Amino acid sequence: MADRSRRVRAFLDEQFLVLVIVLVSLAAVGGWLTYTTHVDPGTTTEERPGASWRTAAWFNHSATVTADNPVYPVGATLRERPVYFTEITPNLTGEYAFTYDASDSGELDGTVSLELVLRGVEDDRETTTVVWQTTRQLRRSSIGSLAPGDTVRVPFTVNVNRTSNRLGTISEQLGNPPGQPQMLVRSTVEFRGSVNGEEVASVQSHTLPISLQGGTYQPASPGRMADQTDSTRTVTVEQTYGPLRSVGAPVILVGALLSLAGLGVLERRDRLGLSPAERKRVAYEDDRADFDEWVSTIRLPNDAFELPRAEATSLSALVDFAIDTDNGVVKAPGEEAYYVVHGDYLYTYRPPAEEALGYSSREGGRRETPEGIDGPTGAVPVDGDPVTDGTGGGDVGGATDDE
Questions:
Q1: I need a surface site. Which of 128, 220, 310, 316 has the fewest CB within 10 A?
Q2: Are residues 214 and 341 in the same domain?
Q3: What's the structural domain count of the chain?
Q4: Residues 6+ away with beta carbon under 8 Å from 312
Q5: Cα(55)–Cα(346) distance, rounded to whole angstroms?
C-alpha cells in the first residue's frame, strides 16, 4: 500500500502541470455543457400537427316496383338492394351526397354535376382500355357557402331498362367491338373557398357502377368515400437533451473542480513530491523486481561480516558488479540487506527502510527520521568511493573493518 501511494504521488508530482491543464479543460467543457443544458438551452423548431379537414361523399339508391309480380306489390320501394329487377323496377333513383368537416372553420362554394356514362371497356391483366364512351348529364347543382358539417344532396334517376337497350344499340352500330358494356353514374364536385383560414380549391370525382346481368342490375356499394387533408405548423420550442448530457455535464464539472481542489490541497501541504530517500526506495523496488532472478536468500557465515566492506549506491549497481565479477547477490533472510563476497571485500547495499520514510516537500525535504534508524541510504559508513551504477563495478577504495 505504501509503495502504491509513493508511486501515485510520484506520478501526480511529475504530471502536475499536465493534470492541471486537463482538469481545467474538463471543468471548462463541463461548465459550458451545464450552462447550455440547464441555464440557457436555446431553442429549436419542430413540426406539429396543424389544422385538418376531410371531405366525404356517398351514393344512396332505391327503385319503385311498377309492374305486377308475385313477390312485391306495385308501388313498393326497394332501398339499398344489391340487386334490382329490370322489368318490375326499371327506374333506379338515388342521390349523391357531399359534405366536409374542418378542425376550425370553413366556407365552400362550387358545383356538383351528375352524369350517366355508357362505355365499352376491355380489361387485361395490367390495364383497362376504354373502347368507346358516351355521357349524358343527369343533374347539376350549385354549392353556396357550405359550412363544415353541412351536406349538399343531388338526386338522380336512371331508367336502367331503356339504358340497357341503348347500350346494345350503340354496340351493334359500332360493329360489336371487343369489350364489356358498362353503365355508371359519375359525380364531379368542383369547390373553392376557405377552410381553417386557408384558401382551398379542388375537383373530386366519384362513381357508382351499375352492372347488368340476366334481367337484373346491381349497383355497386362504394360506401363512404373520404379524402383527408392534414397540415403541419412549425413551432419554436426550448431545446431538450437526454439524461446522458443532463446528468453527465454537472458530473464532469463537479468532478473536475473537486479534483483541482484536491491537487491544490496536496500541493499546498507538500504531499506530492518524494524525498530523496523515497525516490531511492522507489528505485530499489523497481530494481528488486527487475533483478529478482539474480538474488538468492542465503544467511552468510559470521566470518563474511569480518571482511572490509564497500557500499553500493543502488541494488542495480550491486547486481552489475556481481555479474561483472561472476558472483551472486545474497540477501540476508528476514531483512533488506544485499551482499556480494568478492576477493577480500564484502560489497553491500541496504535500501532506505520503510520506517525511515516521511512525506517530502517540493524541494525534497522530509519528516525527521526517527531516532535510532539509519539515514536515507541505510548504509554503514565506510571510507573510500562507493560502488557506482554502470555496466561494471566501480573502483573499490580502502574500507575499514566493522567493529
A1: 128
A2: no
A3: 3
A4: 318, 321, 338, 347, 348, 349, 386, 387
A5: 111
